[in-house]
Every structure is written in structure tokens, then in C-alpha cells.
Amino acid sequence: MDNKHDILALLRQVAGGEATPEQALTELKRAPFEDLGYAKVDFHRSVRQGTAEVVYGAGKTPEQIIGIVSAMGARGCRNIMVTRIGEEAAQEVAQAAPLEYHPEARFALAFPGEQKRLGKIVVATGGTSDIPVAEEAALTAEAMGNRVVRLYDVGVAGLHRLLSRLDELMDARCVVAVAGMEGALASVIGGLVDCPVVAVPTSVGYGANFGGLSALLAMLNSCASGCSVVNIDNGFGAGYLASRINQMEGIKE
Question: Tens digit of pLDDT for each residue in 199-221?
Fold first, then answer.
């Protein structure tokens, strides 16, 4: 039993007399994780959180990634997210498992399958250089079943570019604002929309940007209400949080 839908179906079978309590217990007792030695793969993550375990690719060998996603795929997991995975490693993993790779975001989906598109999340960037982080956020949100609208290069250096897309912003259930330099985009968007804004500082900028620290502090000190901030360059964290917000009310297609 690797997701809550399977468990619910099993319980309904017991209630309907199609399965015995003993059979249900046997199914539920299947190991909730598999110990691969270098990793303990959590098969019940989707039961607790609604989404399968995500593989952080940086620091793992291709062989380790293959072992993890293969174990998950064998248990029926689909759209397994692998973040921060380089192109060479992705090519090697793709020889062993179905893989959809996005090099700009260093993001992959193992065992890709059907994806729903619910609600609306807008992912906006201050500049073109912020797009790799924004794509990590957008692809994460899409893999989790959300409809994503991308608004790229709409930063405060040319505010008219953002204002020309106000209709997209006003209809969103959550906005992810990705910006480096002074990180002002999140505050601007936060003052325009009636939905939560997830601010993502990036390491884009000159020396006094301090690798994204100045953007992080600017976003933390934003005077716009309804803004939350994730770590520097953490597109995955922003996309995951935006998905949770977008789907909180159990929206339908």
C-alpha cells in the first residue's frame, strides 16, 4: 500500500466484504520503507503527505539514484521528482529507468506518467537569469498536479512588463516570485494580489548581492502582507509550498 488511495480502496473492500480484515492487515504490513544500504526509501511518504518521496540528486552517484528510483518505480510510484541532477548523471539514469529531463532546471521526472492540472499557480521572475530557479519551481508544481503560468523577465527595472499581465496575477491561487539583485519583485507582486506569494531569492547579482543574501534579507523585510520566503535558489521548496496552497481546498478539475 503505497498511497492513500490504495489504502482507502482496500478499506472499502473490507467494508464491502470483498476482502477480509486479515488480508487487509497483510497488505498494510508490507514494509513502509526499503533499506538499500545507502538510502532508506520511504514508500509511505505519499500516504502521509500526498506526494511520493523526492530524490535530491546533488551528492548522489548515478548508481544510487538509479537504485532509489527503480525501487520506487517497482512499487508503482510515478512522476518521481529528482532535483539538482546534472546532465551526465541524468543520461546515465535514463539508461536504467524512464526519465524526463529538464537541463535548465537540473530537474528530472523518473517513471513519468499522467499529470493533472488543477487550479492556477503563477511563477514570475525578475529577470531571465532567474529562470533556472523558476523552472525548478514550475516543474515541481506541475509534477504535483498544478496548472502553472510562467511570467518571465517582468522585474522592477521595467514595471510595465509586469503590469501588462495583471489579469494572470489576479486569477492566481498562489504566486511564486523569483528574483535576485535587490529582490524587489516579491514586494511589488505582494501589493497587487489577494493570494499568498512565495518569494524565492536567487544568487543572481553583483558582489554586494552576497550570493543571494541581500535578496533574501529584502524579501524577509518586505512590507507586503501575505509573503513567505524560502531559501536562496530553492525553487523546489517554493513549487512544493505553492502546490500545497493551491490544492488546500480540494479543488476539482
Answer: 999 999 999 889 999 999 999 99
The pTM is what? 0.85
Say how many Å lie between the first and final Cα of the chain, rounded. 26
For 82, the 3-state DSSP assignment is strand
Backbone angles phi and psi of 67, in degrees to 5: -60, -40
User: Any idea how long the chain is?
Assistant: 253
Question: What is the distance between the alpha carbons of residues 226 and 99, in angstroms, rounded to a whole number?
Answer: 37
Using CA atoms, how far apart are residues 77 and 83, in angstroms rounded to an integer? 16
Name the nearest CA neighbour of 30 among 19, 43, 17. Answer: 43
- CB-based contacts of 77, cutoff 8 Å, min separation 6: 2, 43, 46, 52, 111
Residue 70: name the closest of 48, 58, 55, 51 by CA. Answer: 55
The Cβ of residue 70 has, within 10 Å, a number of other Cβ atoms equal to: 17
What distance in Å separates the CA atoms of residue 245 and residue 238, rounded to the nearest whole number?
A: 11
d(CA 57, CA 99): 13
Per mean pLDDT, which range of 17-26, 124-133, 188-197, 224-233 is the poorest? 17-26
Only one residue has cell 521526472, namely 109
- Cβ-proximal residues to 38 (8 Å cutoff; 6+ apart), any chain: 64, 67
- Cell numbers standing for residue 101: 529531463
pLDDT score for 1: 47
Residue 193, Cβ density class (10 Å: 0-12 exposed, 13-18 middle, ≥19 buried): buried
